[in-house]
Amino acid sequence: xxxxxxxxxxKLYPRSFMAExxxxxxxxxxxxxxxxxxxxxxxxxxxxxxxxxxxxxxxERLSQKPSVIGTPLFSEIGVRGPSPAALCGGALTSGFVxxxxxILFLPESGQGNPFSNPHEGxxxxxxxxxxxxxxxxxxxxxxxxxxxxxxxxxxxxxxRPLPGRLTANASLQMLIQNAYGVQxxxxxxxxxxxxxxxxxxxxxxxxxxxxxxxxxxxxxxxAERFQLKIHRETRDxxxxxxxxxxxxxxxxxxxxxxxxxxxxxxxxxxxxxIMAPPxxxxxxxxxxxxxxxxxxxxxxxxxxxxxxxxxxxxxLSLVLERTVIDQTRISGSFDLDLVxxxxxxxxxxxxxxxxxxxxxxMKTPTMFTALQEQLGLKLQAAKAAVEIIMIxxxxxxxx
Length: 399
Prior knowledge:
- By secondary structure, the protein is an alpha+beta fold.
- The chain has three domains: 2-133, no CATH class; 145-226, no CATH class; 237-262 and 287-350 and 361-384, no CATH class.
- 36% of the residues lie in helices and 22% in strands.
- The chain contains twelve helices and twelve strands.
- The protein has a four-stranded antiparallel sheet. A four-stranded mixed sheet has the order 4-12-6-10.
- A hairpin with a 2-residue loop joins strand 2 and strand 3 (165-171).
C-alpha cells in the first residue's frame, strides 16, 4: 500500500528533478518513513513533505523554467508574485500529502529507527536533497582517506571508531555489526568469507567528526569497497527474560567515586561480541554505565559500575548472543561483579583452555547459576522480535 502512495506523492515534485532523482527519492522516502520513531518524528516528516511539495507546486507555476532545488522561494516571488490559483494549488497539494501520510502512519507506527544519519536534514526527502541544496559544502558522510587490505587472522578482532578516524582488524561481519550497531546473531546471509576473512581498515575523517558520524562513514565505506547491499527484516527469535528469583536480590547500589564518566566519543572496551583479552584495559577506574567482560584465571567477570538493569541486560545479550529483555522492574543504578565460567551458552566467549585450571568447573559457576547465586536474578526462555541485517551482496575489496 505504501509504494503507490509514495509514487503518487512524488509526482507532485518538479518533473526536471524527478527525471534525474526519482528512483533515489522514492528509496529515501521509504527509508525515512520506515526509520522515523514515534508519532512526533513521523508527524515532523509529514509536515516537512507537505510544505515542500506545496512549495514545489507554487514554484513550478511561477516559471516555465526547470526548478532548481535550493533556490529560496522568496527570490522568485520578488520577481513575480504567485497567482491565487497557484497558492490554492499549493495548499491543496500540501493537504493531499498530509492525508496520504496520515493514512500510512496508522499501520506502520511501530517500526524502529536504525537510520540515524544526523546530516540528513529536513528539506525534501533527506540526504540526497540536502546534498543538492548544499552543493559546494563537504558532507560529513564519507572518510577523507581510507585503506582496506586483507589481514592475517591473528589475535582478537577489533573495531575502534575514534574522533576523526577509524582503525579495525576484523571480518566483514564484524565491520557490519559496528557500522549498524547490531550483534553477531543479528547479521545473516552473505558468503562464508564475510565471517572468516579479516581486513585491516585505516580511515581518516574530519577531526570534528563524532563517533556516531564515523559509524555512518563506515556504512558508506562498506558499500563502496565491499559492494555491500543489505536489507532489514524482523524475525521472532529465541530470547531470554531477565527476572528476579523471588528471593531478596543481591544488588549493591552504586557508590560515588566507583567509576569515571565516559566521553561521548570514547571507544568502548568491549562491544558487539568482542571481548577484552586477558590483562587488557586500563588500570584506572571503569567507565560509569559501560559494563565490560574480562577473562580471569578463574573464568570470566562481567563488571559494571553505576549500571541500570537495562544496561546490564544488554551486556548479558552480548555474552549470550541472544536478546535479553529486562523484566526485573528494578530501578536505580548498581555496581555489579558477576564471576562465571564460560560454556556453550556464552557463545561470544571462548571456553577455558583444557587442562589449564584443574577443577575449575567445580569452583566457578556457569552464567545461569552465577546470576542466581551472586545477584538473585535469573534468565528465563522467551521470544522476541529482533531486527536482522540481511546481506544481499558482498564482494571482496579490490587490491
